Amino acid sequence: MTVDVEFLPKDLQPSRLHNRLIVVFDVLRATTTMAAALAAGVSEIRIFGDIAAARSAAIQDRGARLLCGEENCLPPTGFDLGNSPGAFSRDVHSGRTVYMSTTNGTRAIVAARGAPVVLTGALVNASAVGRAIATRWPGLDVTLLCAGTGGAVAMEDVIGAGAVIDALGRVGRITLSSDAALIAHRLFQSERSDLRGALSAASGGRNVIAAGLAPDIDFAARIDSLDAVGVVTKEPLAVRRLDPG
Fold first, then answer.
1. Residue 131 — φ and ψ, nearest 5°?
2. For the chain, N or C: smaller number of CB within 10 Å?
3. Could you report the per-residue pLDDT of 7-61, keeping only the tens digit for each?
4. CATH number for the domain harbouring residue 220
5. Tally of domains in the chain
């Protein structure tokens, strides 16, 4: 299995979607929140590229749905929840359908949707993602796609990609096919003893702290705290929990 890393969705060429497994990372905070929501028992997370599309689709659904997302780190007007992973609990949210749009993470999923398999990853489920890839799709090469922040590379996403590379290396034989993958792996190894500090120092972390949401960084830095892995479905475009079997 070869493993590559793309630092931004704009760098993901269509040819790189063919016969590859893509893992999308928005560690602060969308893919961390997705892992938390799936662990809390939400039925699915429907993915939208912008706030207006999510709001319009949710209006059509009179069932047990939740509008979830952010603009400039904060919940948009009329949304039920923002983008904080700690906001989800099994008692309240199990069985609900989430309609989600975020500035970076959901757009990265939209960019990756043409691949045969798309997963969502973060630090909180890095080992679970690595095991899932190795056991379910050992014949596919892997691209780890970082969502970035506002069109710029996000250090926390690169660290998340490095954590999954580390996990894959523990369960199988892999080849890192680019310097980007090597950078991600070495960055994770250098920062793993203080992931909270690394996330706080990144520009995305500083934005989250400035918005008064520092507990989200604590949550996102808890490596391997969850075993929920999200897998993307195409119609509708949604993230569902991968069956652990």
1. -65, -40
2. C
3. 999 999 888 888 999 999 999 999 999 999 999 999 999 999 999 999 999 988 8
4. 3.90.1560.10
5. 1
Which residues span the domain enclosing 149? 2-241
* Predicted TM-score (pTM) of this structure: 0.96
> In one letter, which amino acid is 236?
P
Angle at 165 between CA 145 and CA 18, to 5 degrees: 45
Rounded to whole angstroms, the Cα distance separating 222 from 14 reads 33
- The values of phi and psi at residue 2, to 5°, are -100, 145
Please work out, in degrees rounded to the nearest 5, the angle formed at the alpha carbon of residue 127 by the alpha carbons of 218 and 227.
Answer: 70
Count of CB atoms situated within 10 Å of the CB of 233: 14
Dihedrals phi, psi of 24, to nearest 5 degrees: -100, 135
Straight-line distance from the first to the last Cα atom of the chain, in angstroms, rounded to the nearest whole number? 22
The per-residue pLDDT of the chain, averaged, comes to 95
Average pLDDT, integer, range 95-108: 96
User: 41-55 b/e with 16+ CB inside 10 Å = b?
Assistant: bbbbbbbbbbbeebb
Whether residue 244 is predicted with pLDDT greater than 80 in this model: the reply is no
Distance of CA 1 to CAs 4, 21, 102, 197, Å?
A: 10, 11, 31, 32
Residue length, the chain?
A: 245
